[in-house]
Amino acid sequence: MIARMATNPLPQFPAGFLWGVSTSAHQIEGAVDERAPSVWDAFSAGPGHIKDGSTAAVACDHFHRYPEDVALLAGLGVDAYRFSISWPRVNSPGGLDFYDRLVDALCAAGVRPVPTLFHWDLPAELDWMDRDTAERFAEYASVVAGRLGDRVKKWITLNEPAEHTLLGHALGAHAPGKQLLFDALPVAHHQLLAHGLAVRALRAAGADDIGIANSHGPTWAASDRTEDVEAADFYDLLLNRLFADPVLLGQYPEGIGELMPGDVESDLKIIAEPVDWYGINYYQPTEVGAPEGAEIEFSGLTLPAELPFTVKELEGYPVTDFGWPVVPEALTELLVGFRERYGDRLPPVVITENGCSYDGIDDQERITFLDGHVRALHRALEQGIDVRGYFVWSLMDNFEWAEGYERRFGLVHVDYDTLERTPKASYNWLRDALRAQR
Ligand code: FCB
What is d(CA 32, CA 59) in angstroms, rounded to the nearest whole number? Predict the structure, then answer.
């Protein structure tokens, strides 16, 4: 396959800018029989929970094929690889040995390991509604850091606690499949507390390069009518501020703290334990309007009528195979908006995920997507935003949660019958683009 260069060379990023790709354990590892169960194993077995009826039992079989995947990373020429550590696997005999081998292989290939400690695959016996889960997470973080901290320098505590709260506990579209709506708020608080406790645990183990990967995107009001603007502000609070304000400012947005369990004021001191950098997963902006009193079908989800907002389909933009609008300039807007909101409380930023689902190995659309977003990121740098890295989601096609295997986000194609990996045109494009940055 010959990659056609889509566009002009990318603008030059500062020396030391970290280029990487991301994956997560549950989405690629497989080998479920070689670890304790997670909430996703039980959820995937439920009727209709995964659209194509699949599970992650085999996924990309990365657990057994990681040497091949590390070779793909080396061939791509990335500086860093963001992967996640499966907590249930670490709880299983020999589980941590796997990550030890993976980290060794990455270091030998000259790729910096950047593990995320929690990417949604909670051990099956735990529940984020319980405060104790936060304490258990900090213990787990200490164990992992004790074993890998001699080679791992950059750490991520949690991935997208917003989606895990909303999709997993409020709407029931992800594991553990709870439909608690606003009663799911303790799940948000306990994950944030887990983050803060883990920052302390990692620091105690000698780490000094710690971040979180939160998902964010601009919220656009459907019109300037007061009802639409208020609904959009509320959505923005839930999706953007609820997980950023406590970490960056040590406070919840107005009206939220009193809904949270426990001694919230003293917990906030832990949650605001300073991070060394702030990770943002960006995919798309969202248009939001006043509630219309009816269920809404949106991005594969059914949103209940009682939500105080309506999420609209954005019109006038190309969409990915997932139906997500492609709006690179909203990444610049997001970052500039973050600096306006958080000022000097915002540490350096790393884009910990950005990518798109398209079928096909000659994936010119993905090249156009990535090219546009990298340029949008550079425009943020030109406006003085301190961005230190960019990670593409994802190295390879994988188990896309409730969507199963139908959404392909990879730079590398995976044939799920043979598990053969085939670099796509976008892999070659990124490899060449990274060479030009050196
Ligand atoms: C993010 C998740 C990641 C993947 C991408 C497409 O929300 O963190 O695991 O599913 O979306």
Answer: 10
Beta bridge partners of 123: 38
Q: Compute the distance from residue 359 Cα to the ligand 1 centre, in Å.
A: 17
CA distance 113 to 155: 9
Site residues for ligand 1, CB cut-off 6 Å: 24, 27, 159-160, 163, 215, 281, 353, 393, 400-401, 409
What is the CATH number that goes with domain 18-284+314-437? 3.20.20.80
Q: Which atom of ligand 1 is nearest to the CA of 409?
A: 6
Over residues 128-174, the pLDDT tens digits come to: 999 999 999 999 999 999 999 999 999 999 999 999 999 999 999 99
Residue owning the nearest CA to atom 2 of ligand 1:
160
Burial of 10 (0-12, 13-18, 19+ CB in 10 A): middle
pTM for the structure as a whole: 0.97
Crossing angle, helix 62-76 and helix 95-108, to 10 degrees?
Answer: 20
Give the torsion sign (CA, 411, 168, 258, 193): negative
Note whether 176 and 250 are within 8 A (CB). no
**Locus of tokens 């799920």:** 416
Domain boundaries, the chain: 18-284+314-437
31-70 pLDDT, tens digit each: 999 999 999 999 999 999 999 999 999 999 999 999 999 9
- CA 410/CA 425 separation, integer angstroms: 11
